[in-house]
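User: Please predict the structure of the protein below. I'd like the answer in structure-token form so I can feed it into my own downstream comparison script.

Assistant: Understood. Taking the following sequence of 183 residues as input:
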Amino acid sequence: KGFIEFFKEVEDAQLSETFWTVGLVQNLETSAINSPYFNVFLAAQVYFSDNSLLMQGTKVSDLITIMGDIHHIFPKNYLERNGIKEKSKYNQIANFTYFDTQANISVGNKAPNEYFGIVFNQCVSNEVVYGNITDMEILLDNLSVNCIPHDIVEMDYSHYEDFLLERRKLMANKIRQYYYCLQ
């Protein structure tokens, strides 16, 4: 049902630039995990055979079907400790990603700049702490396919709203690429 609703809306919008860059970005501003927009984003990740966040060789499709967790990129408890207490804020779908269970447990409630900082450092040290990526080029590609802004390594709770907006734009662009691949 979600995919049909999404593609009907796309058809009704006549694929205007405004739909892709404004309307879809606004529609991604939701906390409904069963949102057709989030489901289409995940379908795009499956279609493109994207690796899951911080993993090389573990596909998003693997985590959806077998063993993954939905992870808050900005952890819920971290946001709450820093004054962002509204469920509709911390549970934005732009704050969600499929994540390896063990990596999710290891990251816990750390700030994004902390745990992504460790991941960026492991590309220099080759000492794996989170995920399994130890190459900067692979890491940057991994962030891109997961629609994570590359400056996440500098972000704390004060950047949360900017992060959500940037990620929604990146997610909308991935959905757009997916849509045109299906033509």
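That's the full token string. The longest strand covers residues 68-72.
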